[in-house]
Predict the 3D structure of the following.
Amino acid sequence: MSGSRITALFKGFKAVGRTALVPYITAGDPIPELTVELMNALVAGGADLIELGVPFSDPEADGVDLQLASERALASQMTLTNVLSMVAEFRRNDDKTPVVLMGYLNPIECMGYERFAAEAAAAGVDAVLVVNLPPEEAEALRSQLQARSLQSIYMIAPTTSPERVGRIARRGSGFLYYVALKGTTGAGHLDTDRARAEIARIQQRVDLPLAVGFGIADGASAKALAETADAVVIGAAVARRIAAHLNAKEKIAAELKAFMGQLRAALG
């Protein structure tokens, strides 16, 4: 099935004018034993697609909240193999919700492209987003993913030229991820009016659905961007809620479920 879950999701949502809610969590944060429970809680709260972060020691695109999330996960000896096992466990009870692995190239390089693609497909992953792999240099990995019906998600930014947006869209599948600001995840200077205008311009040039992330922290900012975007991605705000309950981990699942409910209500 793999990437077809993503295609079906956005096709169905487009037909009814619905915006997808996409939370990001780092696998293994705060402890590996909770990850699948948290994934299930996110879906129960209203998440439509989950971005599952592969923890990495040098996540250069991430702000402090997600850096700390990776540190907490790595302190528990998390590996890419562990992450894939978590997806497989999640799939035992949820064969509907798409899962996108999001992370950095190094762990995939260490595993090897062919092995990674095969094991990701077997686990039930739908797509892969590698933050520090430019689309122009991604053909070796993309071909291995495509051979197993896994989709390749690529990022575009406010600084991406219109011509390059078109080239990236032609290489990508599933959806495009629009980074809504110049900065790292969780930055506090998101200009929603500017982002909406840019999203509208990009949508005139590409056929893929457009997800927007970086800087979305609450229902108000999510709703503002949902007026034009096909999906909104929320990561740092989720990580902050996890970090706030490190001494009461049994409360995290309920907290994330409630947060998703608030966001889903705001999106309509």
